[in-house]
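Chapter summary example: a protein plus beta-L-fructofuranose.
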Amino acid sequence: MEKYYLAVDIGASSGRHILGTVKEGKLELQEIYRFENGMKQKDGQFCWDVESLFTEIKEGMKECRKLGKIPLSMGIDTWAVDFVLLDGENRMLGNAAGYRDDRTKGMDKKLYEVISLKDLYERTGIQKQIFNTIYQLMAVREETPEYLEKGETFLMIPDYFHYLLTGVKMQEYTNATTTQLVKAETGTWDYELMKKLGLPERLFGNLSMPGTTVGPLTGAVEQEVGFSCQVVLPATHDTGSAVMAVPLCPVEEESTEDILYISSGTWSLMGTELSKANCSAESMEANFTNEGGYDHRFRYLKNIMGLWMIQSVKKELEEKGEAYSFAELCRMASEEEIASIVDCNDSLFLAPVSMIRAVQDYCQSSGMAVPKTPGQLAAVIYNSLAACYGNTVKELEAITGRSYPAIHVVGGGSNAEYLNRLTADRTGRTVYAGPGEATAIGNLLAQMLAAGEFESLKQAREAVYRSFAVKEYKPDSPGLPFYPAKGKPVNKHEQMEEK
Ligand code: LFR
């Protein structure tokens, strides 16, 4: 009898249901459902439509029933920082505002009246992002303080969906750390900080680690989807799940502290794994974050604007009646000579009315060639991303004192060959690209670890290495298949010599 696990992985632009199973030490995946997502304007605010997302979650679950593949457990991961507030009758107070809404504008100043940025970083280890939950909660306090008064529960988006599925309210640790309200040292809520900020402590219950069983589906959900299973917490922050699925080559005995990763999607999250948070002033100045991970490891990384920039340009072109696939944009970009580079992390690019204009204005005002055609725009964006990766490698090496010969690119963006080549060239490091479904795989791994399919995260990462095709890009060389999806694990060095 096969044992199935279901990952529901919801990103900022799409969601997917993936069934996973382990066969002879290898992971097998089956995508059974996919749906669209995006922030939409509601009541003058950029919001997530949590109601329709929950309908999609259940629609996807029904596919399990149709296929006759009933999972032992399921878990949901999403983007981070966003949340809902529930009143005493478990009704949502206000909307599920999205992190690109500008309600947080000026909230940093308000926050620093109470605590300095330095103190905040020393306590939480979280990088400043104006959209972090802490700034969003400051905006709630300013605009609708009654929500805080009436609120009984604060739930991050995946916690809310888990609650709708089971009737059990649990607050998962990895995602909670992105609120900037969790102490890096202890991994528990910083109630002292909440008190200073006027945030009611009752909203925040005990944190639960990935692998914890939330409970079975409610009777109503069971009836609707046609089966029952347990809900088990993955790392509910999608980046936490993605980094769990960074493949580890067993014969090299490398540890993830020796490698760099980029979780590449709407955002590019670039960093390494640390066993202890680095909350130093140097780290704060370079704007690195220490997000909580599986087993209390830390994802020491930087948010880089990511494929959001090219996704936005593609959408804008479509609206003008010029539709291109990402592959076409990459091909056109590769034929361009334009050398302009923008700073992807400039807040200009977070939620501009027009991404095309934002990129053009940036180039214009800094005296660089202004991209005009879709190919030129794509070339500037992809080259700028790769340049940003290059700077981040240098910063990471300076701060950690380690040197990193390779970068593992995982997530949907790892399929962008052109970007992988640029990344290898501009970082001077070997790039290993894949697996593309890292986030869903990581979600599955947490459930599989809880069920005893693997003994440790290391073992699970080695299974990822054996199970999925990865491509290798050396600086100045085209991408070649690196380790095979099937067959025995191969020693990286031996294979390099063979080529
Ligand atoms: C990636 C991600 C990042 C987080 C951003 C906003 O999907 O979760 O890790 O900083 O979205 O939540």
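Key point: Residues 4-220 form a domain with the Nucleotidyltransferase; domain 5 fold (CATH 3.30.420.40).
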